Amino acid sequence: MKIGILSSGGDCPGINATIRGVGKAAITYGMEVIGVLDGFSGLIFNDFIQLGERQLSGILTLGGTILGTSREKPFKKKDGDLIADKPQLIKQNYEKMGIDCLVCIGGNGTQKTAAQLSEIGINVVGIPKTIDNDVWGTDITFGFDTAVNIATDAIDRLHSTANSHKRVMVIELMGHHAGWITLHAGIAGGGDVILIPEMEYNIDKVNELLLGRFHKGKPYSIVVVAEGIKTTKRTDQPAGAFIAEQIEKGTKIETRVTVPGYTLRGGSPSPFDRILATRMGTFAASLINKHEFGKMAALHNNEMIAVPLKEVGGKTRLVPHDYFLIKQAKRVGTFFGS
Q1: Is the pTM value of this prediction over 0.85?
Q2: Active-site hit among 132, 134, 145, 192
């Protein structure tokens, strides 16, 4: 068999570990492995490289992706597209290259595209990746643990400077729709207030809590905010800046905002993510070897399972309101805004 591997969407720690896991396992099954460059764009423009033992060695610890990535969505038509039917062109190139299965490493959008490619007759196996941890069907995605580690370290460092200056420190973390990073890093870093997209908040109540802490002799506070929380902000004002502005205006306490941004997505993956990526990659190769296509590798109760791609596409895994960590955080005084 001949398989192709691509990575699509935002970069994420652990992609290279996954490529290595898929590729090395596939080679042991006697498969030929090629890498598709720059996501689905590589399938449109016939941009491939050979992936052998040499290319797959030494990449376990590397951040980013050796195959490159893009946010190309072939089923989404845009004004100015020069290629009328990208999906059919992808299928033609897939067949021309003699590929027997395409491994798609990516988040929600990638898995949705993978499901659509499966529907037009392309053999596909998906592997979920995103620091946001919001892919439906799996308990966790690789990249998430690394991002939480980086975000927690940033919060840890804010405690000392906040205490020194008697300030409120607002830190804005990635998460457009899902607050997994903010929730986990906020709890791990001892955040006093955690605001996530899934939960409504009242800024007046936030200010009331912060003033109460100040009057009780607690000279500083840490507010952890997901970038996707609902605000009445100007369109050009990030969530963290909005919250910081509202806090300083409502409490008269000096407030500063920090945004780690893309640092959460860069660098070497954590040991947990290296192991998870390897597990998902080797499991995907085993699915291909058994000709089980149209499925996504997923972790459920610490066991690898195959989830139909048609059930994954278009869904987002959000933080439930009754999530056990929220309940436990509230018991130690963490405030969620309402």
Answers
A1: yes
A2: 132
